[in-house]
Backbone:
């Protein structure tokens, strides 16, 4: 279907059911805010399969203790089980929220698969489980030029829906003069950062419930580094530098 003729989608991507389930509420809020359908994507991560194929591969618990030997076949079965649970939960949640929905499973790397599957008008949500009670705020990373109005509105909506204060992180050159979309945000903290490393350090300290990142992807740290620092769901528009 031509992107211009289909409804906008919120694409919730994850490599396991736990991350997908933990991000479902945020994805629903985002879909309602922009009038979009809710689509899920379980990515069978090639790096995880490669690690499970090693001769002495072991699964590891949160305590760090080795639990049991694991094989690529067992990992593929786990992905299939997670895909089934993800699909069932997403369709049930979308139906309860009166949202159109879809689901698919693909193999690859999470960021690449999500970017390739997204089109004009869509939003990408990277699933990452963090309980709202374990978080302090919602963060909007604003562009150095002109923040996307719908992402600014979405960040404010998520802040209200999750009951968390909104913090706006802006490049230092933007801090003195607020672009128009930010001018309407009253009573929020606006914090400047000088470098990508300073931005990542700030995310590590803030314990956000969700991060909404505005602007060209080239101006942001890589998705993997953003997720490692924030340890929460991440929302982006598709990269306009890539064909969709």
Residues:
């Amino acid at each position: 279907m031509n992107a211009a003729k289909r409804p906008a989608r919120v694409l919730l991507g994850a490599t396991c059911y736990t991350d997908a389930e933990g991000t479902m509420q945020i994805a629903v809020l985002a879909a309602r805010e922009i009038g979009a359908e809710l689509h899920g994507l379980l990515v069978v991560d090639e790096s995880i399969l490669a690690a499970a194929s090693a001769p002495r591969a072991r699964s590891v618990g949160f305590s760090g203790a080795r639990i049991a030997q694991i094989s690529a076949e067992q990992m593929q079965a786990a992905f299939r089980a997670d895909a089934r649970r993800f699909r069932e939960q997403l369709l049930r949640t979308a139906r309860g929220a009166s949202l159109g929905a879809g689901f698919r499973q693909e193999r690859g790397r999470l960021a690449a698969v999500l970017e390739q599957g997204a089109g004009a008008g869509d939003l990408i949500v990277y699933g990452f489980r963090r309980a709202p009670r374990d978080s302090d705020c919602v963060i909007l990373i604003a562009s150095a030029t002109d923040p996307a109005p719908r992402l600014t509105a979405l960040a404010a909506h998520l802040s209200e829906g999750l009951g968390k204060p909104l913090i706006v992180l802006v490049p230092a050159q933007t801090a003195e003069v607020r672009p128009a979309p930010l001018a309407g945000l009253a009573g929020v903290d606006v914090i400047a950062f000088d470098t990508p490393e300073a931005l990542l350090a700030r995310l590590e300290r803030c314990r956000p419930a969700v991060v909404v990142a505005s602007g060209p992807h080239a101006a942001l740290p890589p998705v993997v580094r953003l997720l490692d620092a924030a340890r929460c769901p991440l929302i982006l528009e598709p990269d306009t530098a890539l064909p969709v």
